[in-house]
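User:
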Amino acid sequence: MKNRLLKITCMIAFFGAANSYAQTAVEYMNVFTAEYGKIQQDMWDYTSSVSHGKSARKVEKRRGELIQTSNAALGKAKSAKGFNGSTQFRDSVIEYFRISNLVLKEDYAKIVDMEAVSEESYDAMEAYMLARERANDKLVAASEMISREQKAFAASNNINLISSEDALDKKMAIAGEVYDTYNEIYLLFFKSFKQEVYLTDAITRQDINAIEQNRNALIATAEEGLKKLEAVKPYKNDKSMVEATKKLLNFYIEEGKNDIPKMADYFMKTENFNKVKKAFDEIPEKKRTQTDVNEYNKAVNDMNAGVNTFNTTNQNLNKKRAALIDGWNAAADKFTDTHVPKGK
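Assistant: Predicted structure:
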């Protein structure tokens, strides 16, 4: 699953200047790009925060500020005149700000809501990440539209454009590739992680049928994840996240195949003990045979042994799981810290 970070070519300036004096084509074009760097940086800060690291809800205030900025830019762009009778370049700027404003107001409002429930299921998480991708893709397409119109304007007015990416452009391009890899691996991790949550819930409820169902589902999900992980292309050959995910998925498989049956066995022995005890209690004490007593004692011993096995297994699983989750989080943090460019 791709999740490109937004690369925005913001064409915003004091558009009133386009109406105030006679201009050359270069001056006209520069009016639309005067504040490019500042707005681009602001949008980079917001979209990269939402893509990874900060909660969209926590940066909700910033979204509101950007909506105001894009609204103001849209109004100014609409007030600008065309150049030598042509409004095509200006209209592309207007359309960009119309789209960006709509995406900020509608798409990212939905993203904030989806984020709140994203961890409830794999499907919810996948939908949330897809929504971010689609929102960013709309803005990327709008940005590319302006770039095309800028080149067309330059060509028709004999302006020699020097095509080069500035430092922030390069940072955004690199970050996009890093997050593509991160998100692809994250979804493989999250699917099995969430399946184990369902399994843990079944164990808490002592639902033997649900335990068996979710145990098998965990094994299948983890094995599927391992196969898909083989197809993941590590970013700059950095396999740290891949290896951390492999360890977790192998843990889930081992847990499902070998550890959970031991824990489920305790519940079955407890269930058997309750049946034996009920039957034993219904027999008058004077009528109890040695066979009745032996059967009762065996059920007690089996249940006690099951308790010990359950507790030991559960403690070991908790310890291993915690270490592997910590390791995965550390690998993920280091991966983004290492590869995502920092600073402005």
